[in-house]
Amino acid sequence: MTESIYAIGTVGTPWGEAEKALWLSQQSIKRSYLEHVASQLDAIPAGFQLVCYGQLDYRSFGASEYPLYAVKSKVWDPAKPSVLVTGGVHGYETSGVQGALAFLQQQASEYSQAFNLLVLPCLSPWGYETINRWNPKALDPNRSFISNSPVAESALAMAYVHSVSKHWLAHIDLHETTDSDNSEFRPAKAARDGTVNTNWNIPDGFYLVADTKQPAPDFQQAINEAVAKVTHIAEPDEQGCLIGEPVVQPGVILYDTKAAGLCAGMTNAAFVTTTEVYPDSPRSTPENCAQAQQAAIAGALDFLLKQP
C-alpha cells in the first residue's frame, strides 16, 4: 500500500470553497446520461411504469438539469414482497447502471408475478456524465443516505423509495471497485478532508458487501454462486481482506451500512447487499461486468423465491 498526495489543497488542511471550485473546474462532460441511460428507459416491459421522481438542477455548476428516473411495478400489490434495486449511486461505476437497465429490459418481467419491483438505475447522472464519484459540491452520495441529507441525489432517492413503500424484503445496490479508486478518488477524498490517504489493494473480481447488522450469509452465497457462472469471484489478499476489510465468507465483507450512510442502508430490508465488480481486470470486459450485475440481481431474486 502506498500513500498518494492529491494535486489540490494543502496536506493536512481540509478544502475550503476555493479548493472545491478548483476541483469542479477540472471536471468535464465525457458521456451522455440522456443518451446512455434515459433513452434506454423507453423500452421498459409491460407491467412496469416509468416515474420521474425528481430533478437535479446543476446549471449553476456549468452543467445541466437532470431528470431522475425510476421503474416500478405498475400494480403495487401489498400482498407481494417488495424488492429495491439501485445503480449509479457513484456515477462513474458504469456496470451497475447498465446491469440495472439490462435486468429491466430482459428479466424484470420474469419476476413481476412474485415481487413488487422498484429499480433506480442511475441515482447520480452528473457523476455518470463526468465519470465521478462525487456530485458537483464534492460530496459523496454513497456516504449521505442519512436524515436531512445535504446531497440531493441521496435525499431525493430516499424520499421517493420511502413514499413507495415502508416495507422492503430486499435491496440490491450495484457498484464497482476500480483502479481509479486509488489513482483519483481516494486521494481526492483525503485531500478534501485534510487527511492522509493510504491506498488499498483493488480486488480482481466480483465481491459483495453485506450489512454488519444483518449479514444474511445464505443470501450472499446465492448471489456469488449466480455471478460465478458469469465472471470470477475476488480472492482475499495476503491479510485475508478485500479493500482492507476481513473476508467473512468467500467473496463477502461487512460494512455497517446505516452507520456509514450507504445507499444499501436506506431501508430496513432483511436482505441487503452491495455488489462490487472490477472493470479494470484483464479477465473482464464492460459487457461481462454488466452481465455480472444482472446475474447478481437475478441470483438474489431466485434465492428469495425459495424462502418461506
From TrEMBL:
The keyword Chloroplast does not apply. Pfam families: AstE_AspA_cat. Keywords: Hydrolase, Metal-binding, Zinc. Residues 25-308 form the Peptidase M14 domain. Transmembrane segments: none annotated. SUPFAM superfamilies: Zn-dependent exopeptidases. Its cofactor is Zn(2+). This is M14 family metallocarboxypeptidase. The lineage of its organism: Bacteria, Pseudomonadati, Pseudomonadota, Gammaproteobacteria, Alkalimonas.
